[in-house]
Amino acid sequence: MPDEQPSKGSFFTTLPGVLTGIAAVLTALTGFWAIFHHDTPANPPKAAIIDGPPSGAATSPSSGTTPQSTAAQTSAAVNAGSATPISAVSLTSRKQLTTRLEGKTFHHNMTGTMLNLDSGQTIDFEKLRQIDFGNVNGDAHLVAVTITLNDGRTVPGDLPTNYAFAGDSDLGPFTIFVQDVRQIVFTH
């Protein structure tokens, strides 16, 4: 009589097989989650300098300053800057060429429809009236910007230069590197 060996079950019916299968499923789910949820952190740092008090803020008669703290002003700049849909964007390059883009297609190729300043401040495009671009610091790969919010307040900051803005014009797709932009005006 030949030696009969007991039949072996599938690898996935053993403890190491079950653990390997669970690890594979968790890895796949984590990968899918990362692909579809690549947003910015829920509570990014909020450190910006705001010119002037938020609209409607009371001022102290003796000092002319608001009773609100700087943190409250920063929060007001981000949260109270009225967000309205963008109908068009006029983008002027450093060569003084202006291109009009559809508001719904305009985006930053890294952060989508918001700006992430080097300070950590994040501001949605819908809260912006205008962005003026200053000097480029090539060594630091940054460009100085002054952002004007819908309510007229300004936020200074720096943007990384190694990204681009893009959108659709009446002629087709349009892309320009951050360091080549002079001004962006949002029409709401």
Structure description:
The protein is of the alpha+beta class and 188 residues long. It folds into 2 domains: 12-37; 81-187, no CATH class. It contains 2 helices and 11 strands, in the order H-H-E-E-E-E-E-E-E-E-E-E-E. The chain has helices at 15-36, 70-79; strands at residues 88-93, 98-102, 107-108, 114-116, 122-124, 128-137, 142-149, 154-160, 164-169, 172-177, 181-187. The protein has a 6-stranded antiparallel β-sheet with strand order 2-1-11-6-7-8, with no helix packed on it. A 3-stranded antiparallel β-sheet has the order 3-9-10, with no helix packed on it. Strands 4-5 form a two-stranded antiparallel sheet. Strand 6 (128-137) and strand 7 (142-149) form a beta hairpin. The N and C termini lie far apart (88 Å). 20% of the residues are buried. Residues 39-80 have low confidence and may be disordered.
Please state the structural category: alpha+beta
Task: Give the overall silhouette.
Answer: elongated
Strand order of the largest sheet: 2-1-11-6-7-8
Helix content: 10-25%
Work out the strand percent. 25-35%
Low-confidence stretches: 39-80
Distance between the termini: 88 Å
Measured on Cα atoms, how large is the radius of gyration?
A: 25 Å
How many distinct beta strands? 11
